[in-house]
Design a protein that fits this description.
about 375 residues, mainly alpha, about 75% helix, rod-shaped
């Protein structure tokens, strides 16, 4: 198969991207891990399951970076950029090298970094710029798959950019220098098919992980329309902003009202608690009074029973007194009659005694006279 010079340049540069980029990026990854991460508690990179899991944990887990969940020797360029330029591991877990050093430069689409060496001597920035330069070269090649052509001036520029990036990353450029020696015989049909397939895989993977946009051409034609839409959106946003501010003011008023209501509710709540406490005290007192009333009622029942018993006893005593009175009256009558009889008898006796006394006196008087006469 006969190639044009431009086609041969395309396949030469494809060889650099497909064959040499992954090798260099793997070496850079291991160097970054061993230099920036490895410590007494974290081993150097040995591609073991243990060290791989440590890396995955730092990146948020295997689900977040599924293409990295295998031996690093199987990582393609897209995965390797994810593991270096877009990794949190090498930016102390707070960001990525891309966000820290590449994004702030605001590089225009379709252009390359004019230098990959940090102006301040910051090695992290140099690595970020060099890695991003390789990513931009890979993206550019993927977009040229449809033409399969690169002119000599562009080819020479690409090769120089690659060598500068490799040098900044501490990688050997010998193989890059030998790319120019390749000829048509080095690209048989099987090799061409391999290169095309690998480039397509790279392009698809890069699109999936948003490292490049597969629709740059379409986007270019839509820029004007988008610009118009953006203006309309900007106007709408201004209106919405104004409405939001009004709503915000209303919300503040409502919030103030709610705060007042909340305060009032809290006050009512305190009053309710006080009333509840007082009701509890009253309830307790009522229960105590109820208990006392029950006791008094029981005592009154006992007294009533005792009074009824006393009344019954009084009735019995009254009845007995009546009987005694009747008996006393009967006895008094009998005694009176007997006393009358006794009195009569006594009177009779006294009369008889008086008669006897007179006889005795007479007898005594007679005796005395007889004695004297003798």
């Amino acid at each position: 198969m006969t190639f044009s010079a431009e086609q041969l340049n395309f396949f030469k540069f494809s060889t650099v991207v497909v064959d040499d980029f992954p090798v260099a990026l793997r070496q850079v990854f291991v160097s970054m891990w061993d230099t920036l991460v490895a410590s007494p508690g974290i081993p150097k990179w040995d591609d073991s399951v243990t060290v791989l899991n440590l890396f995955l944990v730092k990146e948020g887990g295997a689900k977040k970076v599924p293409t990295l969940n295998k031996s690093y020797k199987e990582w393609d360029c897209t995965s390797l950029f994810k593991a270096t330029l877009f990794a949190q591991t090498f930016a102390r877990g707070v960001s990525t090298l891309d966000k820290l050093y590449v994004k702030p430069r605001g590089l225009s689409s379709g252009t390359f970094h004019h230098s990959v060496v940090s102006p301040t001597g910051n090695q992290a920035e140099t690595y970020a710029l060099a890695l991003d330069q390789l990513r931009l070269l890979r993206n550019t090649l993927c977009h040229q798959i449809s033409t399969l052509k690169i002119d000599k001036a562009t080819f020479d520029n690409y090769i120089q950019l690659v060598k500068d990036a490799f040098t900044a990353l501490g990688q050997n450029t010998t193989k890059i220098d030998e790319i120019g020696k390749l000829g048509e015989d080095d690209f048989p049909t099987t090799r061409l098919k391999q290169l095309k397939d690998e480039l397509k895989k790279e392009k698809d993977a890069a699109i999936e992980f948003k490292q490049i946009d597969d629709h740059l051409t379409k986007i270019g034609s839509q820029v004007v329309d988008v610009g118009s839409d953006v203006k309309d959106v900007k106007t709408d946003v201004t209106d919405v902003k104004s409405q939001v501010e009004d709503v915000g003011s209303d919300v503040k008023d409502v919030k103030a009202d709610v705060t007042n209501v909340k305060t009032q509710v809290e006050d009512v709540g305190l009053d309710v608690k006080d009333v509840k406490a007082e009701l509890t005290d009253v309830k307790s007192q009522v229960e105590d009074v109820g208990s006392d009333v029950k006791d008094v009622k029981a005592e009154l029942t006992d007294v009533k029973s005792q009074v009824e018993d006393v009344g019954s006893d009084v009735k019995d005593v009254k009845a007995e007194l009546t009987d005694v009175k009747s008996q006393v009256e009967d006895v008094g009558s009998d005694v009176k009659a007997e006393l009358t009889d006794v009195k009569t008898k006594m009177q009779q006796v006294c009369s008889e005694v008086k008669g006897l006394s007179a006889c005795v006196d007479a007898m005594q008087a007679g005796s005395s006279e007889g004695i004297l006469s003798q």
